[in-house]
Structures are given as C-alpha cells and as structure tokens.
Write a structure and sequence with these properties.
With 310 residues, the protein is α/β, with parallel strands linked by helices. The chain has helices spanning 39-49, 64-75, 135-142, 164-173, 181-191, 195-203, 243-256, 261-276, 286-295, and strands at 8-12, 16-22, 31-37, 53-57, 59-60, 79-80, 83-84, 92-97, 103-108, 127-130, 150-154, 176-180, 208-212, 218-222, 225-230. It has a nine-stranded mixed sheet with strand order 6-4-1-10-11-12-13-14-15, with helices on both faces. A four-stranded mixed sheet has the order 3-2-8-9. Strand 13 and strand 14 form a beta hairpin.
C-alpha cells in the first residue's frame, strides 16, 4: 500500500495507568510492572508500528500518572487530542497475574467529565476508531454522520451498555463495526433473536460488519452476506491483550490504502498476531514494545500506512 502521505488515525477509548503484579515465577518472587494501557493506547501503539500518524483521544487527569502517560505517548510519536480533567484522577488499574488473564484488584475511574466531541480537533484525520468507551461516547460518534472521516466502532462491550432497541441502530450508523463472537451472542440474547439475525440487521444497508473470532480468524459481512474472511495468524501467544485493537487498526489502514476487504483483513490478522507475541511482563519502556512490533514485520512493506517518522 503506497500512499503519498501516511494514514492519519484518531484513536478514542481508554487511556490508563496500569500496574500488574506477576506472581508464581520460578523464584517465587512477584514482579511489578507499570505501563500505559487501555484501548486508545493499544490502538495507538499498533498504528505507530505500521507507520500511521496517530492522535489519541481520551481524558487524562492533572496528576503525575497523567503526566507519565502523556510522556510515553510522546515517546512513541503519538499526538494527544483529548482533554486533561480538572482533577487528580487519571484512570488506573492494579491487577494480579497468576495465570491467564489479569484479575483486577483496584480500579480508580476518572471523574465523569466527558469529552466534548465538538471541541476536539479532527483536522487531517482519515478515520476515527473507537475502542473500549462509554455507551454515551459510542452514541455521540455514531451521530457524526457528516464528518469527512471514516467512523469505525470496535465496540469492545460498550454496545451492551445500551438498550437493545438502540444498539443495532447505532452499529448500523457507523461505516465499519467490529464485534467479537461473545458480543454478537450477548446482543442476540438481549434482543431475543439468533446471531444470524443480528449480523443481517447490522450489515443490511448499514455498516460493514467484521466479526473477530480469535483463533478462527475474522469474517466480514455486508448486506447480510459474508463477503470476505481471513485466518488468524499462527503464533505463540504471550499476551492476547490488544489483539482486537490491533486487528482494527490494521484492517482500517489497509482499506484506506486501497486494499480489498480480504487483503485488509489479512493485514489486520497479521498485526493482531504480532501484538499477541509481545512480552509485556518485562520491566521495559512501552517504546520497546513499539520497536519489537515494528521489527517483527507486522505487515508487509507495501501494506504499511506510512512512515514512522511522520
């Protein structure tokens, strides 16, 4: 994918200061790792790894943790187009990891100062990608129909916080919607229908719908019919966190670069696979994750969104 300029993505979602306590090592000691986290951060990391310009949109507290997050964002070359809240309240998670998924021990949410979408600088943006966000933010972006950029919802469970009568309509109003199998099943259960009906209603004259199926790959639907698919990458999974965010970034970047839907899904799958191989237990700067993701050749040279130095 050769472009005259790098693709510019706005990434909206959670931006958190995460502390993970890894226990159960061979020496019996615990290891504490602090790092940025959240869907907006993971999408930004993936976007920068394939050369996209990335503007992170979130709220960050006026405190040392918020300052640290913005410092790391600048280190990987991302822009901040969100807002600093008026309080000492950066989103924070503390988790313990003994085996498998981390178990949250402590969660400190930010104040309910929501982003004012009308005040965000959207200039130069090719696509706005929503990761895990509030149902209110999801509905707000769904209504930005006259915007010149592509609107993409990686719902990540947020859609389940809306009344069933609204959920399908909101998804249909996006240009692209990505859901995992659990979200599709939950939505069907709430509505009281089969999953096939949800797929048909969302993609019939509405959004291009992509269902992410973990190790079974991804499938795209439009007008109620399957139109493309891609297998998952066969990799040794170190940490699956952010796989869906990476797939979303790779897929959208491929489409914006003129690739077919099949080819763009393959770009997304490759990037998701590489994200899963990152060893995030080590006490290293997140910038090292970016370097590792880039060195692995997350996508073919011609599939890149631009230059990392942009």
């Amino acid at each position: 994918m050769n472009t005259k300029r790098s693709v510019a993505l706005a990434l909206l979602g959670g931006f958190a200061y995460e502390t993970k306590v890894f226990v159960g090592g061979q020496d019996g000691n615990a290891e504490i790792v602090d790092s940025p986290g959240g869907s907006a951060w993971l999408m930004t990391l993936a976007a920068r790894a394939i050369g996209c310009r990335a503007a992170l949109v979130a709220t960050v507290g006026h405190d040392p943790l918020g300052d640290s997050l913005l410092s790391e964002l600048g280190y990987i070359g991302g822009q901040f187009r969100g807002a600093r809240t008026s309080k000492f309240d950066t989103l924070r998670f503390v988790s313990i990891v003994a085996s498998g998924e981390p178990q949250t021990l402590y969660f400190s949410p930010p104040s309910p100062e929501n982003l004012d979408m009308s005040q965000i600088n959207w200039s130069g943006i090719d696509a706005l990608l929503l990761g895990y966000c509030s149902p209110a933010d999801l509905a707000t972006v769904a209504n930005l129909r006259s915007s010149p950029f592509l609107r993409v919802a990686n719902a990540s469970g947020a859609i389940l916080g809306l009344p069933a009568s609204e959920a399908v309509g909101i998804l249909r109003s996006f240009d692209i919607a990505l859901l995992n199998e659990a979200e599709i099943s939950s939505l069907a259960s709430v509505i009281g229908c089969k999953t096939e009906q949800v797929v048909e209603e969302v993609s019939d004259d509405g959004a291009l719908l992509v269902i992410m199926r973990n190790r079974s790959g991804s499938v795209a639907f439009h007008h109620g019919k399957q139109i493309a698919s891609a297998p998952a990458e066969s990799v040794a999974v170190a940490d699956a966190t952010g796989a869906g965010d990476a797939l979303t970034v790779g897929f959208v970047t491929g489409l914006l670069g003129g690739l077919s839907i099949d080819a763009a899904l393959k770009v997304g799958s490759r990037l998701a696979g590489r994200m899963c191989t990152l060893q995030r237990k080590a006490r290293v700067r997140p910038g090292a994750w970016l370097d590792a993701l880039s060195r692995q050749g997350a996508v073919d040279k011609d599939d890149r969104g631009g230059d990392r130095s942009s």
